[in-house]
Specification:
Layout (H helix, E strand, L loop, with lengths): L1 H9 L5 E4 L6 H7 L3 E4 L13 E3 L8 H8 L4 E3 H10 L3 E6 L4 H14 L5 E8 L4 E4 L5 E5 L4 E3 L2 E4 L8 E4 L13 H13 L6 E5 L5 H5 L5 E6 L6 E5 L7 E7 L2 E8 L4 H16 L4 H9 L9 E6 L2 E6 L4 H14 L5 E5 L24 E5 L15 H10 L3 E5 L2 H11 L5 E5 L7 H10 L7
Parallel strand pairs: 1-2, 3-4, 5-8, 5-11, 6-8, 11-12, 12-13, 13-14, 18-22, 19-20, 19-22, 20-21
Antiparallel strand pairs: 6-7, 9-10, 14-15, 15-16, 17-18
Length: 457
């Protein structure tokens, strides 16, 4: 929604907004563009009579501004409807969907097109470092959209993804997520299957072939299907090369014929998959291997994805959006590969509607194997989850200790800051994982690390 607001402002529209809680980096991002965001929701915010109200999916039907818009007869639409109307239009559209890696893969694809001189438009759920933005209104023929399987709006409970009209789709696979709106993995898979069935012979689907349900999901489609992954049978096969801190290298094969060699800064096997998918999609849109290689080499990453927030007292503090167990495991593994000689301190806040539920209670303990010291925060929004479904951070810490890990649970962020500032030493890496602001823990940690407490007697 923030990206859409900024894009519309750039296109010449007057834009205002409301949200329950706005925090950096999005609050700063919007303020720099002169977009007024009202804290909280009130009917008076719409009293001036806007020409259109765009409703995000976090807004419920009893929201005072939603109620006012309906009662006043103000025109309204959902976010994906607005993206289609104002931005996608007649552009060739690349949609990136799947449980994991959407933001990074879409960001890579957008930068590959931009680096090749295609001046694409894009709408992505994270701030792309190369652009210092999560949107772009370009003059070129391409549009890149991060397609979400989450519901569209209170008046449209279908997935946002289903609204987008693609020329090329990247599907990164499906795992169970969004436990607040889906009952099981089959419901999530059905969303993707429905989307794929809408695609025709002139459209291309670049799909993660090793997904557990790839067979049935990809069977009998009318569109062109190209799988990617590390298997010999994949249309686009990714083969890891020698990697080193700051250099993640791989070769890409198309139908087992060498396509090109590539290297990039973002670490981890999961980022090689993301990059391979983006490269395959870019090739389908006409880019050469050389153009793709140059783009990946200069890709600067995404804010809040392995983002180094600073170094203090010789301790590196890294921010990441990881929350799903798979993302937590792969992110920790990636940071371990990037800093093989460092002690790795993992700080995790369960915050999403899924991670605050106990659906993955037994899965999370196996996701921290590559961390040396683990700090788990009690979920601050746990009251939003029915009592019998709540995730226990205390239990996770106990289960990790049973596995021989040095794990601790904390009931507030300040205590984590104090603990880490005392425990950390020069050369350590602190990886903070949360989907929220986490009480500005990164800045607090960096400040505390500048002035570590004196050791006790």
């Amino acid at each position: 929604m923030g990206a859409l607001a900024a894009a519309l402002k750039e296109m010449g529209y007057g834009v205002t907004g409301s949200d329950a809680n706005v925090y950096p980096p999005m609050s700063t991002f919007l303020a720099e563009r002169g977009i007024v965001v009202n804290q909280g929701f009130c009917a008076s915010h719409l009293a001036y009579g806007p020409d259109l109200v765009i409703v995000g999916n976090a807004v419920k039907k009893d929201n005072p501004e939603a109620v006012y818009a309906l009662e006043a007869g103000l025109p309204y639409c959902s976010m994906p409807q607005a993206v289609n109307h104002f931005l996608a239009g007649d552009r060739k559209t690349l949609v990136v969907c799947g449980t994991h890696g959407k933001t990074t893969t879409a960001s890579m694809a957008a930068w590959l097109l931009a680096a090749a001189g295609c001046d694409p438009s894009f709408m992505i759920g994270g701030i792309v470092s190369n652009f210092f933005s999560n949107y772009k209104v370009g003059n070129g023929p391409y549009m890149v959209i991060e397609g979400d399987e989450y519901d569209t709006a209170f008046f449209d409970k279908g997935a946002k993804l289903l609204h987008y009209r693609p020329d090329v789709v990247i599907w990164t696979g499906a795992e169970f997520d969004h436990a607040d709106i889906f009952d099981d993995i089959e419901q999530i898979r059905s969303v993707f299957r429905t989307y794929f069935l809408q695609m025709g012979p002139d459209q291309t689907l670049v799909a993660y072939g090793a997904d557990a349900a790839a067979g049935p999901l990809l069977a009998g489609l009318d569109c062109r299907v190209q799988t990617y992954g590390t298997r010999e049978e994949d249309h686009w096969r990714i083969a890891a090369e020698n990697t080193a801190p700051g250099k993640n290298a791989f070769s890409l094969f198309c139908r087992e014929k060498p396509f090109g060699g590539f290297e990039m800064v973002p670490a981890g096997a999961h980022n090689r998959l993301n990059a391979g998918a983006a490269a395959a999609a870019a090739a389908n849109l006409g880019l050469s291997a050389g153009q793709i290689a140059e783009g990946l080499k200069t890709f600067a990453g995404v804010r809040r994805r392995q983002e180094i927030r600073g170094v203090a007292g010789g301790v590196t503090v890294i921010d990441d959006f990881a929350h799903h167990p798979t993302a937590v495991r792969e992110t920790i593994a990636a940071i371990r590969s990037a800093y093989p000689q460092s002690r790795l301190i993992a700080v995790f806040e369960p915050r999403t509607n899924t991670s605050m539920r106990n659906v993955f209670q037994q899965v999370y303990p196996d996701c921290f194997d590559n961390a040396d010291l683990i700090c788990i925060r009690k979920a601050s929004l746990l009251h939003k989850v029915p009592e019998g479904q709540r995730f226990s951070s205390l239990q996770l810490a106990a289960d990790l200790r049973k596995k021989g890990k040095d794990a601790h649970c904390f009931d507030d962020t300040g205590k984590i800051v104090d603990f880490v500032a005392e425990a950390a030493a020069a050369g350590d890496v602190v990886l903070v994982m949360s989907t929220g602001g986490f009480d500005n823990i990164h800045e607090s940690l960096l400040e505390a690390l500048k002035h570590p407490p004196e050791p006790g007697p």
